Amino acid sequence: MGTPPRGSCLRTRTGWQPPADPLATELSLRLEQPLANGRFQLGGLLGSGGMGAVYEAYDAHLGIVVALKVLRDVAPANVAHFRREFCALAGVEHPNLVQLGEFFNDGGRWFYTMELVAGDPFDVWVFQEPALRQARIRAGLVQLSAALDALHRLGKVHCDVKPQNVIVTRAGRVVLIDYGLVSDCHPREPAPEHSPREICGTPEYMAPEQATGACPSSAIDAYALGVMLYEALTGFLPFEGSVQTVLLAKQSEQAMPPSALAIDVPEDLEQLCLELLSIEAARRPNCTQIASRVAGKGRVFGHDAQA
């Protein structure tokens, strides 16, 4: 299979761009007034989601181009939560984690800056060169598991790992972006009945327990990584259909083995993928185990699979 999975971002001569999104248009109308007294000059739209939209922007104060995310209308409690998580991660430096900049409240317009990572979403990058696909999958797994391991060691769970939140540069650097749903890591146990948790994330990449409002754990990110691996191996998601159909299937069904959908699926990657997609959180390998199992297969530690 040499074509990207359905739903991939549109390829253009200058890179990639997301499909048109009414949310981005809505936010753009609110940005007619200069941000931070004209410090930031907005460029093109890089992406958008439920929490806001990300733009390329020139920071006149620092003299550099950054990525700037404008938050959509959010409740004060959510802003406080996100600001707290932002501060916890702002000083973190890791080659596979996007570097955060500053957090702003500009007359009620909440936004923040971060490193501008130029490249393609993970799924687009994997399928660009069929001859390099397996090498890129392995390189991506090692770097992405390193990024998640760094977050987990800080007691944080990303909660929204998906191809659109993983950008790969021309040099082959894999970068995890968008900390909008980052949460504190808790033991693998359900939330108390008297304290229901809000269900947030992207349904196709959600772990079974995430969809039931369980306490966040590193196993949630491991499951999402398994979905990304499945998609990279086959070109399909492990479960497809309506949101309700997908979420219900994850509670009781095991995904079809990737080798049933695609040829030349490496046995070790298939086994790892199926373990990551285990219904039981405790059965999923952690990030250290993932990297260890993949690392012996070719040169994957650097930015080697890039051509």
CATH homologous superfamily placement of the largest domain:
Transferase(Phosphotransferase) domain 1
Strand order of the largest sheet: 3-4-5-7-6
Distance between the termini: 18 Å
Largest sheet: 5 strands, antiparallel
Number of strands: 12
Q: Which percent range fits the helix content?
A: 25-40%
Mean pLDDT: 84
Write structural notes for this entry.
With 307 residues, the chain is of the alpha+beta class. The protein folds into two domains: 17-114, Phosphorylase Kinase, domain 1 (2-Layer Sandwich), CATH 3.30.200; 120-295, Transferase(Phosphotransferase), domain 1. It is built from eight helices and twelve strands. It has a five-stranded antiparallel sheet with strand order 3-4-5-7-6. Strands 8-10-11 form a three-stranded antiparallel sheet. A hairpin with a 2-residue loop joins β1 (10-12) and β2.
Question: What descriptive keywords fit this protein?
Answer:
12 strands, 2 domains, Phosphorylase Kinase, domain 1, three-stranded antiparallel β-sheet, 31% helix, alpha+beta, globular, 8 helices, Transferase(Phosphotransferase), domain 1, five-stranded antiparallel β-sheet, 307 residues, disordered C terminus
